[in-house]
């Protein structure tokens, strides 16, 4: 039997060995995950990964291959190896609902249990939350930049690690993307998948007419034709002609992947409409990020029906990590805290509450060390459990709707609010 226990850092295991030797390993501990700041210029972030955290923690353990490696490498002593062989997390994990917005100081996840069992989870928890949240936060900005009528498709699988690509697709979907090109993400997480053909398909055939005709006959006239392999205008005319030969007014959509997308799409829309293909949609791709999308959405808006986004969404649009840390805040019910310059922490297990005004917009995020509710506010920490990505997607849309327009602005600015401890 194999496990995932080696997906952690060396010092997590050596801390367990030393804590067991000192007798402190069994002390009750509370760790919190939070970000001291948002990526530079960002005004809010979107939590993702909490919806798949529970199963990752449940699967975390040490099988025979992992234990054999630790013994051979002499990472820990034999007594600790025996303890690791029986490791299963028996504590509790609470977190912000997936899709929730967060700010500096937000305790997005709380892990409670013995010190030994909780400290081992640091790397696992952070690797999931830092990656998924970075993707979801970037994706949310792209969704906010696009027109509500325009769909966004995640297509960055070839721009990141093969495993990260699957979870990036999920995080983007949670944040509001409509579909992904990644089939494994579709299978694993129930995300809609989409895709038709690349330039290679056109180049394979002796002519564009032959390529388009073959695609339309095989995939149906609702398919999307990639029209910028040679001459875009000529390709659009050819695509419409091929679709008409099959009884349709035009192909379901065309995709443009190069050039000045504003000018290209404006010309394409005029041409399509003039040819009677008024229902043919226009899809664009090509190194898009939230700023490029916002420029295309500026008046006069480019006639774009869907955006395909790759590199920038899976890489967090310049910020590939959320900057979360996993810090011990309580031991045996007693608050503990770091006092390091620039890295101080707030001791004590905290409950978080989101305060909204009469207009339904966010006013504040309040932290308390006790269980007393904040009047008129909703609690943010709930038990972590795996759930479908669509559940996080619904919550993300609701949470984003609570932010005022200036909090959604793409221009660099300070975080909209900060989580504040109420003494």
CATH architecture of the largest domain: Alpha-Beta Barrel
- Tell how many strands the DSSP assignment holds: 18
Percentage beta strand = 15-25%
What is the makeup of the main sheet?
A: 6 strands, antiparallel
How far apart the termini lie comes to 49 Å
**Physical arrangement of strands within the biggest beta sheet:** 13-12-1-5-3-17
Q: How many domains is the backbone divided into?
A: 2
**CATH class annotation of the largest domain:** Alpha Beta
- The secondary-structure class comes to alpha/beta
Coarse shape: globular
CATH superfamily heading of the largest domain: nicotinate phosphoribosyltransferase
Indicate the low-confidence ranges by residue numbers: none
